[in-house]
Amino acid sequence: MILLSGATGKIGRHLVSQLRREGAAIRAVARDPDNAGLPDDVEVVRADLSDPRSLEDHLDDVEVVFLLWPTGGVNSAAVAVNVLARHVRRIVYLSSAGVRDGAERQADPINQSHAELEQLVEASGLERTFIRASGFASNTLGWAEEIRDTGVVRWPYGQASRSLIHEHDIAAVAARALTEDGHSGATYVVTGPQALTQADQVHAIGAAIGLPVRWEELSREDARRQLIVAFGDESTADGALDAWAAFVSRPELVTSTVEDVTGTPARTFGQWAKEHADDFR
After folding, report:
1. Separation between Cα atoms, residue 256 and residue 245, nearest integer Å
2. Quick one: residue 181, left, alpha or beta (phi over 0 = left, psi -120 to 50 = alpha)?
3. Residue 127, pLDDT above cutoff 70
4. Which residues are paired to 162 by β-bridges?
5. CA–CA separation, 273 vs 277, rounded Å?
6. Which of 84, 128, 152, 257 has the least C-beta neighbours within 10 A?
7. How much of the chain is helix, strand and coil, in % rounded to 5?
């Protein structure tokens, strides 16, 4: 039995689909099982990661857990990992490619949160696999409304190069780690197959929808004001901006890990944009 957190999200739905094809027994955690929208052969149970003890009743026959933890909340994560450690054999944790091993402090609050959760899982004594993902291609859906309305994306650091990864490919690596032996102790850094600047990502979306889409550089100050509202936290906003600024001179790394683990090359951002073209029209 595999327990999935985040099963109703973008990555989780791909993971559910892939595990079903493998014939795996799946138990999905959801706050509202009646509205989870998952296939009938997936067991959906009511639990909430913000209340980790709500997991307790659903773990007796679980061997492996896919853990997708919201950034922050490390105190409740410690409780959750302790609960899991009493029942399961292995955790597959979705982390961030921005985590730096051996760093006393990570570069921003998001990566700090991931690093601390990795440490909790490591200290639990459970078998573990860490999947450290680069930026999600699906994060560019944040531009969708602006593209639909104006055909222009106004955002900072257009020359920041990211190796954005398709959510399907994250799920594909996770599915292997959840269902196969030989992945315990591994740390997989998974990325898309190439690094594209943010401006080139916008142009790729335009090509996918058959309409011109233009990049317009936004000042850091204006972007910071928007991000503080979105994140509700100045340090997280500053951390995101600093990361994009760094990607201008040092593009995000590109790895072959998706192909190495699954045997299939990672999908390009252009492929992702074509699949999601209707979101931007």
Report:
1. 25
2. beta
3. yes
4. 196
5. 6
6. 152
7. 45, 20, 35
pLDDT interval class at 72 (50, 70, 90): low
Amino acid letter for position 27: R
Q: How far apart are the C-alpha atoms of 2 and 245, rounded to whole Å?
A: 39
What predicted TM-score, i.e. pTM, was given to this entire model? 0.93
What mean pLDDT do residues 58-78 have? 85
Residue owning tokens 């998706």: 258
Residues 253-262 have pLDDT tens digits of 999 999 999 9
Q: Which contacts of 216-225 are long-range, i.e. CB under 8 A and separated by 24 or more positions? A: 216/152, 216/153, 216/154, 217/154, 217/155, 217/156, 217/158, 218/154, 218/155, 218/156, 219/156, 220/156, 220/245, 222/156, 223/155, 223/156
Angstrom distance (rounded) from CA 68 to CA 91:
10
Number of Cα atoms under 13 Å in the Cβ half of residue 140: 33
Q: What is the mean pLDDT of the chain?
A: 94
- Please name which of 69, 85, 81, 66 lies closest in space to residue 19, comparing C-alpha atoms: 66
d(CA 62, CA 28): 11
